[in-house]
Design goal:
By secondary structure, the chain is mostly helical. It has nine helices and no strands.
Length: about 170
C-alpha cells in the first residue's frame, strides 16, 4: 500500500513537475521561488497523500496547492519589503560605509533583538547575497525550516523596528 502511494506520488511528480513549475513561475516571476513553491506543494502531498489520490482532479488539486504556496511566498516578499529600507540602513552600518547616529542606533537595536548569527542570516537573505536554498544547505536544515527561521527573525526585527519608529 505505502509502496503504491509512493509510486503514484513519484510518477505524478515526474509527469507534472514542469507544468507546475511553469504555473508557479507565472505567479512569482522568479525561478528559485517558483521551484520552492512546487517543492513545498509536494511536501504537502507527502504529508497527506490520500487527498491527492482521492481527488477527482489531482492536477487541479496540485495547482491549487502550488498557487497557495506561491501566494504565500508573494506575501512574504511584501512583508520583507516593508523592512528593506531599514535593512539597507543596517547593512550600511554592518559594512561600515556610513555611521551616523540614526543608523548606529537602529543597528544596535536590531543586534540586541536577535543574535549576531540570526542578524547575519537575515541580512544575507534580505540583501540578496544568498538564497533560501543556499542558506538551508549551509545550515543543513530543510527549506521550509529556513523560511520559518527567516520569518521568526523578520517578525522580531519588525516589532523592534516598529517600536523604534513608533508605527
Amino acid at each position: 500500500m505505502i509502496q503504491d502511494i509512493n509510486s503514484f506520488i513519484e510518477g505524478f511528480y515526474r509527469e507534472n513537475y514542469q507544468k507546475l513549475y511553469t504555473y508557479a513561475f507565472s505567479i512569482l516571476k522568479q525561478h528559485m521561488d517558483a521551484e520552492a513553491a512546487v517543492q513545498e506543494a509536494f511536501i504537502a502531498v507527502c504529508e497527506t497523500p490520500m487527498e491527492l489520490i482521492r481527488s477527482e482532479n489531482p492536477m487541479g488539486w496540485m495547482k491549487k496547492t502550488v498557487r497557495y504556496r506561491a501566494l504565500r511566498l508573494l506575501d512574504e516578499r511584501k512583508r520583507t519589503a516593508a523592512l528593506l529600507v531599514s535593512v539597507e540602513a543596517l547593512a550600511s552600518v554592518v559594512n561600515h560605509t556610513t555611521q551616523d547616529n540614526f543608523d548606529t542606533e537602529l543597528a544596535l537595536l536590531c543586534q540586541s533583538t536577535v543574535s549576531k548569527d540570526e542578524f547575519d542570516f537575515f541580512l544575507r537573505l534580505a540583501n540578496g547575497a544568498t538564497t533560501f536554498r543556499e542558506e538551508s544547505e549551509r545550515l543543513q536544515i530543510k527549506l521550509p525550516a529556513c523560511y520559518k527561521r527567516f520569518e521568526r527573525i523578520r517578525d522580531k526585527l519588525q516589532r523592534a523596528v516598529g517600536r523604534y519608529y513608533k508605527f
